[in-house]
């Protein structure tokens, strides 16, 4: 029997960078909770953005945030994986050499960027992030950082592959989180490792876990679940890794699968 469900957010439950969640999904999460089935959102987003998205049920779920660097309940942090200061600033200097790329840093409760550009306003107004402009990171950053995100509209993956990825891929996990984002976290931090921590905390096995995803940064999440689903609009690599393929986001594929699960109980 399934006792734990984990789902990616952007590209899986909502269109990238929006708060347009299927209202039926929120009703499904509530119904699952009433039957003792735990739901966890798993995203590159920060906690506050996810809590706002799931507002009617935010106290009923768990949160795998910042691509697995933080695992938390609605009112507690269970685990947090901080990037060392020295490699962080060296990576920042390297990202600044990539043409047209911007940087977001994520701490426990706030995200940070250096100026008021396109990325800042999109994160604040569409993702509903708590985000601050701090100027030069090396001079002004005080917070512990769990994730570095590289942003460039549509071509960020190609830019990163040229020389940045070969330099850093053995020291950090670098994964596509959509066409505009490359997310970097510590090597032992990803959505899958946080899901396994949550399974251990709740006494739930992988065989009792269902997970949904669409992108490269979801592969660990799917691998940690006995019942894994790529949505129909997922990248081909994700479909190959998953046991099942759900309908696409445009057809609310996750909602449909979970409604069938409820009907079977």
Write the layout of secondary structure elements.
Layout: E1 4-8, H1 23-34, E2 38-42, H2 47-53, E3 62-65, E4 70-72, E5 77-80, H3 85-95, E6 102-106, E7 111-113, H4 118-125, E8 131-133, H5 137-140, E9 147-151, H6 156-162, H7 164-168, E10 173-176, E11 181-185, H8 191-202, E12 209-213, H9 219-223, E13 227-231, H10 236-241, E14 244-246, H11 253-264
Parallel strand pairs: 1-2, 1-12, 2-3, 7-8, 12-13, 13-14
Antiparallel strand pairs: 3-4, 4-5, 6-7, 6-9, 9-11, 10-11
Structure report:
The protein is of the alpha/beta class. 34% of the residues lie in helices and 22% in strands. The chain has helices spanning 23-34, 47-53, 85-95, 118-125, 137-140, 156-162, 164-168, 191-202, 219-223, 236-241, 253-264, and strands spanning 4-8, 38-42, 62-65, 70-72, 77-80, 102-106, 111-113, 131-133, 147-151, 173-176, 181-185, 209-213, 227-231, 244-246. It has an eight-stranded mixed beta sheet, with helices on both faces. A six-stranded mixed beta sheet has the order 8-7-6-9-11-10, with helices on both faces. Helix 1 (23-34) packs parallel to helix 11 (253-264). It is globular and about 55 Å long. The model has no long low-confidence stretch (mean pLDDT 95).
